[in-house]
Amino acid sequence: MRGNKGARTAGVDGRTASSIALRVGVEEFLGMLRSQIKDRSFRPMPVRERMIPKTGGKLRRLGITTITDRVVQASLKLVLEPIFEADFLPCSYGFRPNRRTHDAVAEVRLLTSKKYEWIVEGDIKACFDEISHTALMDRVRARVGDKRVLALVKAFLKAGILNEDGQLRDNDTGTPQGSILSPLLSNVALSVLDEHIAQTPGGPGTDRNERQRRRRRGLPNFRLVRYADDWCLMVHGTKADAEALRDQIAEALSTISLRLSQEKTLITHIEQGLDFLGWHIQRHRKPGTNRHYVYTYPAKKALWAIMAKVKTLCREVGTNQPLDALLARINPAVRGWCAYFRPGVSFATFSYLRHYLWHAVWRWVQRKHPKTGRRKIFRRYCGRRSWWASENRELFNPITVGTTRYRYRGPTIPTPWDAAG
């Protein structure tokens, strides 16, 4: 089974890191690769395409590169990332060092608390598949002058794709998800959106006095928060202002051959709330007071996703196995989910998840012991605590995860190169 799994995740050449280490040797492999890059004989291999399921029944396209290409891409990233990090704007959070999804959510919460009440929730159609190679390379050339580096970047973009039917096709647009370079290159392309908003009057580049003058004249101010291709634009103005800005963003994205999804790009008010990066952000009255605050909760879709995950695990672990095998699969998944949603108003959701977990395991144990009475099952697996446990571990209890508040770190989050300097 392990060998088959390795074959599925290997590149088109079928080589894995362990096979290279055993047959060739790491030192010799790196030496050969270094020589190929120096004499410019290195050529990337096509990526192996794999389709993985998304929510809603759709599929996400991943590209699995060879070990050799991964090593070269990692080296390219070490060269390119510090260059482009010097240009990236603070509104961008995805796939950047020292930046987290929680930073992006905290900024949205802060801005919507300061009367940026209309939100454009952006959705880009097939972002990673449709980025124009020409427009992307133009942006790379503007900052990188080394022709060897440029040739390598272009070669990786143009590497073919071997689909699941075994047919090879050319790659004329996009940066395949799954490669080491793809997140950086997508940020380079999508920074056109960040720059457009920053340079537009009323954006983050507008000073405080000018923003106040714009408010007095009835003109909007706005701020962008982007995490990879997920973004939202907060508008201090009217719904009509938000609609006009949505159209401007569509024009800016068209310069790199990207399109907004008209069905999924929504304009909402903070009173209605929005879903962003797994969180639901909404303003409402604090119970027992007349004051209104913006709160962050785990989104319903995120809760449904972890419940579906638990249900799938209960099906995958056969009842011929001990309860410990099931708990060993469920606990890491639920613990990681709760850790992500800890900095928010999550206790009620954790309590609901706790109830669901108990009953999910109870249904599994009933299938395992169809002829055993309830009391006997409880004495065997629960004891006096009424909580499922095996000899080695007990079911993870979500309500033991204390909730906290994530502190907004501001627009100037240091990079590793700042610390080195």
UniProtKB/TrEMBL annotation:
<keyword id="KW-0548">Nucleotidyltransferase</keyword>
<dbReference type="Pfam" id="PF00078">
    <property type="entry name" value="RVT_1"/>
</dbReference>
<dbReference type="InterPro" id="IPR051083">
    <property type="entry name" value="GrpII_Intron_Splice-Mob/Def"/>
</dbReference>
<dbReference type="Pfam" id="PF08388">
    <property type="entry name" value="GIIM"/>
</dbReference>
<dbReference type="GO" id="GO:0003964">
    <property type="term" value="F:RNA-directed DNA polymerase activity"/>
</dbReference>
<feature type="domain" description="Reverse transcriptase">
    <location>
        <begin position="33"/>
        <end position="281"/>
    </location>
</feature>
<keyword id="KW-0808">Transferase</keyword>
<dbReference type="InterPro" id="IPR030931">
    <property type="entry name" value="Group_II_RT_mat"/>
</dbReference>
<dbReference type="InterPro" id="IPR000477">
    <property type="entry name" value="RT_dom"/>
</dbReference>
<keyword id="KW-0695">RNA-directed DNA polymerase</keyword>
<dbReference type="InterPro" id="IPR013597">
    <property type="entry name" value="Mat_intron_G2"/>
</dbReference>
<protein>
    <submittedName>
        <fullName>Group II intron reverse transcriptase/maturase</fullName>
        <ecNumber>2.7.7.49</ecNumber>
    </submittedName>
</protein>
<dbReference type="InterPro" id="IPR043502">
    <property type="entry name" value="DNA/RNA_pol_sf"/>
</dbReference>
<feature type="region of interest" description="Disordered">
    <location>
        <begin position="196"/>
        <end position="215"/>
    </location>
</feature>
